[in-house]
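Chain A, query sequence.
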Amino acid sequence: MAERGALSLLSLLCLTFLYTETTAAKHVDKASAVQPFSPFWFTVEPQDTLAIRGNSAFLNCSAHSDAATPAHIEWKKDGTFMSLVSDERRKILPDGTLFFSHVVHSKHNKPDEGTYQCVATIENLGSISSRTARLSVAGMPRFANQPLPATARLGDSQVMACEVNSDLVAFIRWEKDRQPLELSTRLIQLPSGALVISNASETDAGTYRCLVENVGSSKLSDEAELQTVPETGEERKLEFLVQPVSVTKTTDASVLLPCVATGYPAPRISWMFGDKLLEESDGRVEVLGGGSLQISNLTEADAGLYTCVADNSNTTIEAQAQLTVQVSPQFVKRPANIYAHESMDIIFECDVSGSPAPTVKWVKNGDAVIPSDYFKIIEDHNLQILGLVKSDEGFYQCLAENDAGNIQSSAQLIILDPVVALPSFPPPSLTPNTTDHVTPGSRGVGSPAGPTSSAPRDVVASLVSTRFIKLTWRQPAEPHGDELTYSIFYSQEGTSRERVVNTSRPGEMQVTIQNLMPDTKYRFRVVAHNSNGQGESSAALKVATQAEVQVPGPAPNLQGVSNTPTSVSLSWDKPLTGNGEILSYKLYYTDKSVGKEQDIDVDGQSYSMAGLKKNTEYSFRVVANNRHGPGVSTEDVVVRTLSDVPSAPPQNLTIEVHNSKSIMLRWQPPPLSGQNGKITGYKIRYRKGSRRSESETTEGTQLYKLMDGLEHGTEYSFRVSAMTVNGTGPATEWMTAETFESDLDESRVPDQPSSLHVRPLVNSIVVSWTPPENQDIMVRGYAIGYGIGSPHAQTIKVDYKQRYFTIENLDPSSHYVITLKAFNNVGEGIPVYESAVTRAQSDPDVDLYDLLHAPYTPVPDPLPMMPPVGVQASVLSHDTIKVTWADNSLPKSQKVTDNRYYTVRWKTNIPANTKVKMVNTTNLSYTVPDLKPNTLYEFSVMVTKGRRVSTWSMTAQGTTFETTPSSAPKDVTVVSKENKPRTIIVNWQPPSEANGKITGYIIYYSTDVNAVVHDWVIEPVVGNRLTHQIQELTLDTTYYFKIQARNSKGMGPMSEPVQFRTPKTESSDKMANDQASNLTPKMGPSGNQPPRDPVPPNGENHILVIVIIISVGAFTIIVVVVGAFLCTRRTTSHQKKKRAASKSSNGSHKYKGNSKDLKPPDLWIHHERLELKPMDKSPDPNPVMTETPIPRTSQDITPADSGLESNPHLQQRRNSYRESVRNTPSSEPAPPATASSQASCPSEILADPEGSYHGSTTTEEEPSYSSNLPPLRSAHPHAHAHPLKSFAVPAIPASSHPSYESPALPSTPLLAQTGPPTHPHVVKTASIGTLGRTRTPMVVTVPNAPDVPETSKMLEDVDSVLASLPPCPSPAPRSNPVPLPQSYEPDELTEEMAHLEGLMKDLNAITTAP
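Chain A, predicted structure.
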């Protein structure tokens, strides 16, 4: 019975074992069943082709694939698939080539010309698209210029013209006397087709013609005879027959820059490239045909300005041309094949170069990838796919294109089943154009060795906001392991695309899902991973994010300040949009050296946080909470806690005795955790024996000190401590060293090295040696000479510390002689010789030579070297970092005396640039040059001694300093704002090489692209903005915009000018508003005059003007007289005579006695106090106010950057531009003026007690801007109406100067400008307000008037006049303006001015009456 039980148990164990093995084998097969990438690429792609009408044409295309079914080729024309089923003229050949049996092309029918692209497809695999190619059809030959009869002087040059269609130039050839003409360096054909004959001789005489052939039917030009005549010796003007023209070419092409000159004495032609003389070189750069420059195999370096200089003994002439060299796109990094699982995020990387910069687009299976929430273009060129689904599988192509060409590269995405593990290493590349890649950080499923975890429990959303959700859960009931990690899968409701987020460390059971959409439902599930693989998924949890409008806005004015080295005080204001009562605040803070964010609840609007690290940066943000939940977070505020004295001593102090009087100290800074602030210096204490110590200090960046002036043969002790602004920290332990008794002798050369050993290998010889026996002579290095049969073929010098060297790149089986000499500043010492024969190529690795020379070869130590310690990175500049370290395997003196060397390795933390660089050195420090500015680098060091190599040390980091931007802002675009044609929006992107944090931008704009930079208008913008509005521009005007970026180090270069033209007219709504508010007719197309009816004859104009003048003058005089009569009830006979004289002479007054000296005062009449004030006189006797194409007032300019106030240079430049544009003529129609300019109503003259318009305003930020501008109009002209009518005078249309009536420079009845009078006559402007018309302001000369005392009687007179005037009706729009005269004769102008002078004298007589 017992035996049967034992057998049963044994059988059960065997079955269990077999089942386990079978199950494991199945899992292994399943996990290893990785679908390989399919090789699929184009072997031939179409090229640009010039076809001949009526002839056949080919566009080649062929694809390679290992698939069972061959690739199916289709063609696209201009982006649309071609249907060739019933096309008898075009068909696809078996290899994929598109064949045209005969090309059709006519003036109105061009079915074959266009852009073509072939698409290769494999069923159930995917599609790829080729590069695009242009098919052009040569037109019928047409001569635009034909040869003409000409005469060439012997020895001179001549040009025979022949110009045809540009696409047929390649088919031109020349004939002389109807025989083919053979070209040479003397007879050349220009790119235009013309023939240049240089150094003419008698054999060049004959008849010439050009012909176009091989384009269907050939075509001949007219024949022209060239005659040669001898040179007369008379001087002829030096001039160009052909000048170089600017041209654009691609790299590797050739270019011919023509330059032909004639004259006597015969000119000598040379070329300049930039400002340097260009010399011919190796046939690549040649001067042909007496002066034309030909450059072959063009490179980017050939681009620039070329100048042809023709010079004879009398004159020098020049002609310039710009050569632009374009570079077709090239792949710097191609997209890689990718394995991934569903729900993962992946990135296809693609980096291209070229000139101009190529544009990149992505294609999936032949269809363009449209950016969306899940397909995003990042870092300019890379394609990011979020939340993979099975349908995302296929071929993705990166297509790059610029003016020089286009290229493509493809990569395959394979999405594996969840049970299939991702390969741990990429398989070998399957195509010549791609590299394979496994998504980093992906988690595959290995061969299960045990049960997986059950589903996580109690998955809940512990925090729900508008854009993030925080999930927590409990450990699975059956974890089957200790260190569990979790994956959180989530998707938006209604979509099948699921994304995944992994926890950051084992055991963590919470995660925050960021970047969600507000008021959106999401589904979440959690999966646990143990050592056996992925476990069960939790049930789906549905959560909706909060609506963004219900939660509080950000708390403004968040501020933080450090009070002590371990505390920070924070305060903030209540959110402007609380959406209800604020219940609490949550304060988030992050130690930036660690990166983990923590939070704390706060009831009030301030908090003091203690227990922080010293001299450490913390970031803080605040989120307000109301009954709906957490609101919008504030921007992070970074605060650094105060510094303190260092809490740790410097590291790795080493002492090296230099000579009998000096000792070198080297050390490393304290660890970061013990610095507690910026190290400002180091204090070095030293003492001789047991005497009292002395001290010296160094700068904070200096990590060494040479202590000189010491006594010879004396022991000294040293220790070093670090200092901050707060004080001195702890010091290192005392370290001692003894100076030499005497210095090494350098008055003679070193002795012979004491030994020299060589070990030959196949292609190298290892040389080792020992120093000279006499150690009292200075040795600064060793010189190694070697060569076959002689040691003088090559020489290498090494450092005095080095004891071995490997001579590389030698020939096998060759006899080499080696010599070694020690040297110092005096010279080289006695050499020691050795010879060796390199081993044959077929020798085994170990032979008798190794055994015989074993005593001379160090036995390798199997123990590894200890890695260097205390690696520190000290930033020296924006492109240099010094790396220092210590070696614990060296003696305390840290002096390298053996053959060890160190390898320094560094790289950036930029994911797109993971290239590692390394360098070897024998010192304990190395200065790394040529780094990028404002970039974080990681450094590590390893030591090598013979065959012993250490592991890499701990890494040290250093961020290079900032420097000024080295590139301009990119992607500058200008668009017009909708419904506001006078407002434009400028958009841009930061510069590619910012070299630091961008703190601001400056927008320059002008109407003249060639204007000096000081004449451009500037608009400053803060650094975090990439768009800006500019208002009140002039319609139908071309503007040029440039942008310049700045960081903390200064300004970068300007971008290229971007051109934008404002619309010709405003929208109808805008125009209606303008007309309703301004109440003036719109200016006509001429820009200076409104539209008007047909102009009557000059005689009628003259009569109309006289009638208007008489009517207005009479009406004004009658009103004034009646008002004065009613007030004073008296009049004098003298006044009656003057009134009669005024009527009889029609306004021309001649006063007798004192009355002729009376002059009207310059007055501002205030409407409240009714007092007369002198008006400020213009400093300019004849001011000219013109409209600028860029009308900008102080109200228009609102700086977006406070840096303008603090930068006087920028403000000065803006003001200088205001001055410069005042006299800029404009052809733009003047916009309608406001009603205040009509002056037809007494209420249209505005003034205040200070003598300025009520509407005149300036901003506080730019008080100086308004000093150069006339007063602005009030927005409400009748708000402060004055009851006194303005004086009506006829206006002279501005014939030589355009009107200055514009929103920026408004027309006013009187222009007040400050400054003392500089001329006996003051110029004023007035406008007529009768007959419902508005006239252009007129320049009037008025004599000065003496000051007249103000009297109560005068005020009474004015009151009576004002009381007698009727109230002013509201102005109405006028649609039919009365025609006005356009010009005046000199006599008419004199008469008009005399009439005005009479009117002013009448008013003066009335107001000064007793």
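The chain has a mean pLDDT of 75. Residues 2-32 form the longest helix (31 residues).
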